[in-house]
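sry for the spam today, last one i promise. C-alpha cells for design, 307 residues
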C-alpha cells in the first residue's frame, strides 16, 4: 500500500481509475495496485457502510464535527465521514509504526541509551504493568528525547528510509497573493519566487542537515535535551515528521499518545528479554555507501532471551 500511496502522490489520475474502472479491468493490474483498488472499492460498501449504519459511528468526534459544521449538506455523506475517519486513522499509524521500529532497533544497539531510558522510566513508574497516562509520560525528558530522535530518523543510516512514509515527502505550498523573497544566510544569494509557484521542502533534508543536527547520522537523544537535562523545546520546532502549518498531520496528538505509551511499555516489558542477532548495523551500511554493491538494510532480527 505504501508504494501505491507514493504512485498516487505523483500520478493523481490513479484515484479516478480506482473509482471508475471496471473491476474486471482492475484485476489485470499488477497485484499490489490491483488489490489496493479492489479493496478500496469493495470495503466501503461491504464493511464501512454497514459499520457506519449499525454501530452508531455518527457519534464519533470526527463525524460529529463534520455533521455539525456549516459545510454544504452534500459534503456530509457517509462516504465523506468514512474517508475522514480512515484518513485520520492512517495518519496516526504510519509515522508511529516507523518511529517505534526505529526505537526498538536503536535501543537494542545502544545499551547506554537504553539503560538511561530504563532508569528514568523505573524512577517514574513503580509497576511496569500499570503505566501512567500519556500526559504524565510526556513530562519525562529522556523519553521525549528518544521519541523525537526516532521521529527524526525515519530512515536508516545507509540512506534507505524504512518503512516508506508519506510524511517524509516534500510538502508543497503555493503563495497566491505575494511573491516570495529568499535570501541565503550569508546574504550572497537572493531569489524572488513569483506568486502562484509551488514551493516545497523535504523533511529528510532538514533532518539530516548538519547545521541543524550535528552528527545527523548518529542516534543521539541527548541533542533534544537542554543543559540541565530538560526538554530542548527550541529544537522541536525543526522536527517535520508530522509536517507544519495548516497541512500538518491531523492525528499528531494520537500519534504522540501511542508513541509515549508504546515506547514506555516496550522499554520496560519487552526489550529486557530481547537482543539483536544476525543484523548488520546501519553504521556498517553507511560505511558501504560508496560501494557499487551496497547492502540494503532489510530490517533487524532479534533473539528472545531466557529470563
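last one done:
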Amino acid at each position: 500500500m505504501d508504494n501505491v500511496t507514493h504512485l498516487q502522490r505523483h500520478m493523481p489520475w490513479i484515484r479516478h481509475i480506482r473509482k471508475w474502472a471496471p473491476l474486471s479491468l482492475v484485476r489485470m493490474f499488477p497485484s499490489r495496485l490491483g488489490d489496493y483498488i479492489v479493496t478500496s472499492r469493495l470495503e466501503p460498501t461491504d464493511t464501512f457502510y454497514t459499520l457506519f449504519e449499525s454501530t452508531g459511528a455518527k457519534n464519533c468526534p470526527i463525524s460529529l464535527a463534520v455533521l455539525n459544521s456549516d459545510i454544504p449538506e452534500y459534503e456530509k455523506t457517509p462516504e465523506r465521514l468514512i474517508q475522514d475517519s480512515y484518513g485520520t486513522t492512517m495518519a496516526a499509524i504510519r509515522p508511529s509504526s516507523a518511529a517505534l521500529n526505529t526505537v526498538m532497533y536503536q535501543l537494542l544497539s545502544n545499551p547506554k541509551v537504553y539503560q538511561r531510558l530504563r532508569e528514568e522510566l523505573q524512577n517514574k513508574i513503580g509497576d511496569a504493568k500499570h503505566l501512567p497516562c500519556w500526559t504524565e509520560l510526556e513530562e519525562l525528558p529522556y523519553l521525549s528525547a528518544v521519541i523525537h530522535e526516532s521521529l527524526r530518523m525515519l530512515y536508516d543510516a545507509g540512506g534507505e528510509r524504512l518503512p516508506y512514509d508519506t510524511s517524509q515527502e516534500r510538502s508543497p505550498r503555493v503563495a497566491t497573493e505575494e511573491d516570495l523573497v529568499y535570501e541565503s544566510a550569508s546574504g550572497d544569494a537572493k531569489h524572488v519566487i513569483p506568486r502562484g509557484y509551488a514551493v516545497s521542502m523535504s523533511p529528510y533534508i532538514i533532518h539530516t542537515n548538519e547545521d541543524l543536527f550535528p552528527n545527523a547520522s548518529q542516534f543521539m537523544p541527548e541533542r533534544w535535551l537542554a543543559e540541565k537535562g530538560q526538554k530542548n523545546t527550541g529544537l522541536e520546532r525543526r522536527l517535520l515528521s508530522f509536517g507544519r502549518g495548516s497541512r500538518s498531520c491531523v492525528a499528531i496528538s494520537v500519534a504522540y499518545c501511542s508513541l509515549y505509551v508504546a515506547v514506555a511499555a516496550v522499554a520496560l516489558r519487552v526489550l529486557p528479554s530481547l537482543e539483536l542477532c544476525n543484523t548488520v548495523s546501519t553504521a556498517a551500511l553507511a560505511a558501504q555507501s560508496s560501494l557499487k554493491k551496497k547492502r540494503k538494510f532489510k530490517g533487524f532480527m532479534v533473539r528472545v532471551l531466557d529470563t
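The radius of gyration is 22 Å. ok im logging off now
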